[in-house]
Amino acid sequence: MNWSSIFGFSVPVEESIVRGTVTFFVVFVLMRVVGQRESGGLGLTDVLLVVLMSEAAAAGLQGSRISSVSDGTILVATVLFWSVSLDALAYRFPRIAGWVKARPRPLIEDGTLNRKVMLREFMTYDEVMSQLRLHGVDELASVERAYVEPNGMISIIRVPGPSPD
């Protein structure tokens, strides 16, 4: 067994850090552009973290000649560093949170659909109505507000009044 091929670095550490950093931010920006509904029930950074960490660790786990366990570890540590750093910055500085964290988008206001949000999230009228029915709402007029949440779910605030059965 050749221990140096398992734990040695096949590329300089700095290169692994730069590669991990660039990849993290490119995928992060692309996922922000795609929209909130595409990430499912997870937050954007959760999805990004899982995808990048699994890819970074894969080469080291497979015993690739190109990458060692140490290379994969550096990439995983870099991705984790940026994920935690962005979350900490967003927590500490609310202005940065608007750039880093997704915000709820108003889908329905006073019973009226927001077509811009529907277009941005690639939602059809039938999909919106399906989501309303899942919340026990059968008409737009009974919705005061509805939002596409950062995790892709739809939250609904009904018009005040008697609640349905």
Automatic annotation (TrEMBL):
YetF C-terminal domain boundaries: 93-158
Domain of life per record: Bacteria
Protein name stated in the entry: YetF C-terminal domain-containing protein
Topology in membrane: Multi-pass membrane protein
UniProt keyword annotations, A-Z: Cell membrane, Membrane, Transmembrane, Transmembrane helix
Chief location bin: membrane
Signal peptide: none
Lineage of source species: Bacteria, Bacillati, Actinomycetota, Actinomycetes, Mycobacteriales
Family of this protein: Belongs to the UPF0702 family.
Annotated Gene Ontology cellular component terms: plasma membrane
Subcellular location per the Swiss-Prot or TrEMBL entry: Cell membrane
InterPro entries reported for this sequence: DUF421, UPF0702_alpha/beta_dom_sf
